[in-house]
């Protein structure tokens, strides 16, 4: 015994093709024969559908033949009786539906009576495949013949209900047939093999191998084939488009208003959905209900519709159904502001929130990703319909947090993405992180993310702040914000430092630094609290983060200091007085931590910035202390020669701008600076640092120091160092050294000469010009320093320019010969 194959199906399909005739007797005979082919159980649903469509085309022609009474000479009433004498039930009912269509059009009987008769008669066919196609045919031929209000087939006062009853009854029976296919395995073998073969297949294990099936394979293969055929049948007859059409007919009936829908249509459909107990059918029908009926109907019958959800089978994908419903309602709310009061009137949020909780309880095995997806949809609905109700938003987050707390830690990547979507929704809606910071359950939900995703979400929050230029203006909100982004400002438990990508880490910390710059409040007291709050959090960041996060905090503090330059001393009655001294104390403690990381170069720069701010506030002791700390760092922590050169020039430049120091303190600091300048490793670096120190003794301000003698001493000392560098180069390389140092010193001479330093004379400048010229000439046989030559030539042109310019300055330059 072999299973039937595709070739057999093609043969049986070909045998099912028949013709027709103008003779009524012959037409009915051949039609019955043709329709008898639809009784076959040998075709798959797909092949059966092909046969059905050919039969359908023939039945269309037959219907035209029945309409023309002159061709057959029999009244339609007699014809309706005549076709009921067909020998087999299936051909009889197809013919009856065809004649019934003509009967209704003739108006010789009320449409409701004919339709009721047809829908009841079709119950005689209970085979799932044959019955489904039969009822599909009935729905198609009766579609334009319903006794609707305004229709030519309208009857008495109850006509609308009759039309609805017909559509719902036919649809209900179709769904029962489709659902029945899942139980087809009870008699499936008999359909394929006959009673004897079925007994052999299931009754005698020794005979099973003789027909090619083992004891375990037989039922399994049959069940697999049955499920495949049911899916095919769903796609062919019970497809969404067809189901939508059947249900939609109820709405297209003119007399079906909201009250009838609420009292009759929806309860009948939901009763069928719940009672069918079939996972696939329940999902399909719920989806159809949501897609077909109008949004305003859904809103007004929300309690009834949602009441069916917890009664569905536990395996139904109810999250998708509810998500689609909430999406439709959200779009409906967005369509017009006038409909929003209706949502409040029916308490849509409360009902949706309640049913989601019940569904999750009823489906205990629902994956966590499904649970979160439901709350994402509910939150989206809430943000679109009730954007002003932050308590609703927080309630959704709290409910989600409660469900997450009862589950193990998130490990499903899909669930993690849904949590990110849940947390991102308020940010996208309000465009203001300040609003999200008022949601008490927001941080609790975020705590369920793994470390990596927590950092991603923290970046999303910071990017939202940057994009919308949100102002976080209170210490309490800063506290909540930094709790949210704690994955970026400190190492969370379980974080593997070796897995951190250097570029990603730098991008994250740069984002945190930009965020700190955006924290601001016009009230000095509140701003100081913000600074203290930020300091508390970033101090836990560790050695790798402090170089990124301390500088913006220090500059935020300096910005506050400049607001308070006119204040000094403590403010009575204030717990944390916002005075420059207090702020400088906090900044000093902060920078001290940075210097021990170690990141001495950054700490030194920040000390100098603070010293300059203290100078502007006229706080000499504070400024002196910052310089002291900077020198200590230079002495003890900065060992690299290049870093020393950069640091000493920063110290000299900052010290030159200071005007708060008295003579004693200034002398101490300038002495330190010149001493360290002369101790640099390389002679050229020494020379440049020493002549830079000359600016410490001549400040071009009305009240600035002008000590010409010490300026000259620095320049002469720089010349000696340059000369020593020249000699060392001659010994090492056998040629003259860097002449450019002399040219640079010459330019310093010219600067102080123009500024009126009496110690800088024309003779000194003349001597230096001649010295450089001599060095240039002695180096002419070797490769000269092109940069030095060009620099010197430019300097000489400048001298000539000043001489030609005339005036007081021209007279001063006349004595210099070039």
UniProtKB/TrEMBL annotation:
Cellular location(s): Membrane
InterPro entries in the record: ARM-type_fold, Vps35, Vps35_C
Membrane topology: Peripheral membrane protein
Free-text function comment from the UniProt entry: Plays a role in vesicular protein sorting.
Family from the record: Belongs to the VPS35 family.
SUPFAM superfamilies from the UniProt entry: ARM repeat
Secreted in keyword set: no
Keyword Transport: yes
One Pfam family of this chain: Vps35
Protein name, entry field: Vacuolar protein sorting-associated protein 35
UniProt superkingdom: Eukaryota
Species classification: Eukaryota, Viridiplantae, Streptophyta, Embryophyta, Tracheophyta
Gene3D superfamilies in alphabetical order: Vacuolar protein sorting-associated protein 35, helical subcomplex Vps35-C (1.25.40.660)
Keywords for the protein's UniProt record, in alphabetical order: Membrane, Protein transport, Transport
Major location category of this protein: membrane
